[in-house]
Amino acid sequence: MSIRLLAPDVAALIAAGEVIGRPADAVKELVENAIDAIFARPGTGLPLGRVQVEVREGGALLIRVTDDGCGIAGDELALAVQRHATSKIESARDLAAVGTLGFRGEALASIAQVAHLNVVSKRADEPAGSFIALAGGAITSQGHRAWGGGTSVSVRNLFFNVPARRQFLRGAASETAYVAHLICQYALCYPEIQFTLETEGRVAFRAPGSGRVEDAIAAVYGVDALQQMAAVIPAEVALGEDAPGIAVSGYAGQPSLSHANRSHISLFVNRRWVQNRALVFAVVEAYHDLLPPGRHPVAVLNLTLPPGEVDVNVHPTKAEVRFARERAAFGQVQRAVRGALAASVPVRELAARPAPVTAFDSLEEQQELSFADPTHTAFSPGQAVAPEPASVGGRRLPLLRVIGQVGSAFVVAEGPSGLYLIDQHRAHERVLYDRLAREGRNNAVDRQLLLEPLPLELTPRQTALVESKLAALAQWGLQLEPFGERTYLLRAMPAFLKGSDPKATVLEIVDELAEEKAAGDWQERALISLACHGAVKAGQPLALEEMRQLIVQLEQSPLPQTCPHGAPTMVHLSQAQLEKEFLRR
Amino acid sequence: MEFTIEQPALARALRLVGRAVPARSTNPIAQTILVEAGPGQVRLTATDLEMALSTEVVAEVVVPGCAAVPGRLLGEYVAQLPAAPLRLCLDAAKRRLQLQCLRFRAEMATVDPTAFPRPTHAGDGFSVSLDSGRLQAAIRRVAFAAARDTSRPVLTGVLFAFDLGGLTLVAADGFRLARARLGEGGRPDCQLLVPAKAVVELGRLLEEAPSACLLVDGEGRGLCVQLGETRLFSRLLEGSFPDVARVVPAEWRTRLTVETAAFRQAMRVAGLFGESGEARPVLLEAKPNEVRLHARGDQSGEAEVELPAAHEGEPQSVLLNTRLLGDILDAATGPRLEVSWLTPQSPVVFKETSGVDAGDLWLAMPLHNPAINRPATEAA
């Protein structure tokens, strides 16, 4: 077969396939157009605009996105549905500083290639609306009709001419779920816009468009969840010597609000919803010692940085972005989330928490409006709606009085608001972890020298791993010395580990190194393992003074409520709950 | 089996052998005490399979015989009875032991005594007689240093090393070593490794015995110590104990001689301030005519003690773990201790300087903290 140029319709079909893979992709393109249209027209009231999304059969039968934005002029409709037609950028220079969600001029054309498309629109200055209908990319009808304003795009029979792709669509419920997830992301990112999602004729989701991200979070995750989230206070950090800063704002869920997957982490860069593995990992890392393995946090975060610092033109769907300084962005996200958590992680409640505020409106009464700036760059939540942190007068833990020990495993303590049960192993683990991390940085870990060096025989893989990490291990007091091909001599160990079997401990830490995953931080895991080995075990009776010491040391920790594995160190049985259990109220 | 015995004598004997009854065991027979009645006396034996204790009590035996009785119950029951003659009678058919003491009557279920693991001792080994006071003192100085964790089994034992001049006891864990010598019991070179648990028990039994006779079985697997009417059996550990001569340093660069009591007190006081979980570090600075102890914790503050000391060699400092040293200083009995070390990272030797114990020593590995050691060594 000789080489030839593809026919334009074939080429267009292939290109459309890149942008539109499933109904949710079409919804994304249309919603982004709607948002851009709302921001393109004058207006400052709240809600700033309305976006109504309707899907039937998961979007395969019908997708309709209606907005009250600026509208498309009647004489531009035919142009708008052509490939590379856009009103958002003009020159290549504009690409470097894209201020709108869309800019490629591909969405409508791509959708038109693979579905029956119908666009109705009217600009405010036009006397009547205009419409255009296309099937498989060809215009089938065009004209004027009565229309109130804004734009409505209907997509019917998606992939009617690409049976292979249609076959790969999942069930209507799954596709609807994708769409709903997407709408939620935009609702979180644009709280000043009222989003409505209708599926199969019923309203499935509505964001109030109040302009406050708290209301959007309440709409998406519920008021209960909102109460367990901490505000990330934006603090601008300069990216480089003469580079402008990067600021992170939004909300981070407390560890009590975890999920089995990462889909509850919503990240926006300059108010563009993005899926960036590094950033998601930065968020997850911030929780590394607060959540048990397999649990993931809830977070709604927006990064604000100069447009030149981020490239959004990586992929046709624009979901991927590249940062000019990824490390800085990563670090900033991690620090911001960590800071918000450290300020607010509460002690885990033993059973049901006090009845949460249920009426949506009452939240408004409690909070000031603080998300009022409806410009295209604002995303700054105001005061936290998070529950009052357990801290009293700057303390991270309430003042506790040790009463005793239960089952040689839990310390019982009394606080100002009831009873606290503290897991002695986890609490000590947290204390040791913090100390080891601090002393390790300053190379100030007390190491106990061994009477006779202990030979450790390692596998070739372990040897290769250990070889490069001797210096870091020595910093924590594990002094290993090469002795022959695969043997190392252990000459010293951290003094706090004295009571445990040194050989087994070291081998376990070496195993931690061997389990190196692409994303995992071996130093972190090794530190946690060391702290775990050194900590008092469950089943070990403690003297009253030892328990007091443990609590005092735990109070010094920046994150005393969880152990480094992320499990809670203590539970709280409130006075109110005790009274309730005893039928006193 | 039927005999009459004085309650105080039986209670004391049960308390003595009861120490060998394991608190938990999957084998019910292991939690029993074997009661054997012979002419004019009753022998009680208990074992946890590692160590066995056996003792004899005078009794008026009517019918000889034996029974295995639940140890804890028998011990606690007899201990509560009044001081009066106690009659024990075995109902062989029902396998029940009937006890009667004044108005108190009881019946206890027994276990088949043939299943009881009796301690055996092959007799063709050798025996050594030792003064109980001297042996007990040596055990007190050494046994605490044996390792508690079982990762290196040889270190859970106490080494009994015989030579022509006498017997040397050595124990060590990974971080310290203790060595004490008895100038008696000399015989050709021979080494026994006795589990520390049995050695501690032996130390306790020696309080009441005037002398001790060590009987080593011919196969070198077990040890029997005869202490009057009481006998302690223990299995011996296998494996080679670290070479003590190699571990104990022959040289030093810094040597101090201090009053033991003052040093012990200073170490305890300074130790209150160290903070490193288990470690509690104290910096020991040797200066001309004095030694300065300094402890500091991030949260606790700091403390300092100066002690008069005879100083020889270099003015070095060394970081010590007070937790590790506490036992050593408690074990030292002489009025003065000689403390010496070669470098801040080599073993620190504590040696008795006078009396019969002169030459007994302890060795502790120092702590190393680059942040603390550095200025000290630079200053040196």
Task: Explain this structure.
The complex is a heterodimer of chains A (about 575) and B (about 375). Chain A is about 35% helix and about 25% strand. Chain A has about 575 residues and is α+β, with helices and mostly antiparallel strands. Chain A folds into 3 domains: about 10-210, Heat Shock Protein 90; about 220-365, Ribosomal Protein S5, domain 2 (2-Layer Sandwich), CATH 3.30.230.10; about 395-585, formyl-coa transferase, domain 3 (2-Layer Sandwich). In chain A, the strands form 5 sheets. Chain A has an 8-stranded mixed β-sheet, with helices on one face. In chain A, strands 9, 10, 11, 12, 13 and 14 form a 6-stranded mixed β-sheet that branches. A 5-stranded mixed β-sheet of chain A has the order 17-24-20-19-18. Chain A is elongated. In chain B, helix 1 (about 5-20) runs antiparallel to helix 2, helix 3 (about 130-140) crosses helix 4 (about 195-205) and helix 6 runs antiparallel to helix 7 (about 320-330). In chain B, a hairpin with a 2-residue loop joins strand 2 and strand 3 (about 40-45). Chains A and B meet through strand 21, helix 16 and helix 18 of A and strand 27 and helix 8 of B. Strand 21 of chain A pairs antiparallel with strand 27 (about 365-370) of chain B, so a sheet runs across the interface.
Describe this structure in a few short sentences.
Chain A has 585 residues and is an alpha+beta fold. Helix content of chain A is 34%, strand content 23%.
Largest sheet of chain B: 9 strands, antiparallel
Number of helices of chain B: 8
CATH-assigned fold name of the largest domain in chain A: Heat Shock Protein 90
Structural class of chain A: alpha+beta
Shape of chain A: elongated
Strand order of the largest sheet of chain B: 14-11-12-13-26-25-24-18-22
Q: Are there runs of chain B of 5+ residues with pLDDT below 50, and where?
A: 374-380
Average pLDDT, all residues of chain B:
88
Strands of chain B, count? 27
CATH architecture of the largest domain in chain A: 2-Layer Sandwich
Question: How big is the Rg of chain B?
Answer: 25 Å
Counted up, domains of chain B total: 3
- Widest sheet: strand ordering of chain A: 5-4-3-6-2-1-7-8
- Quote the beta fraction of chain B: 35-45%
Identify low-pLDDT runs of chain A.
352-394
Helix content of chain B: 10-25%
Give the name of the CATH architecture of the largest domain in chain B: Roll
Q: What is the C-level CATH assignment of the largest domain in chain A?
A: Alpha Beta
Q: Count of DSSP helices of chain A?
A: 19
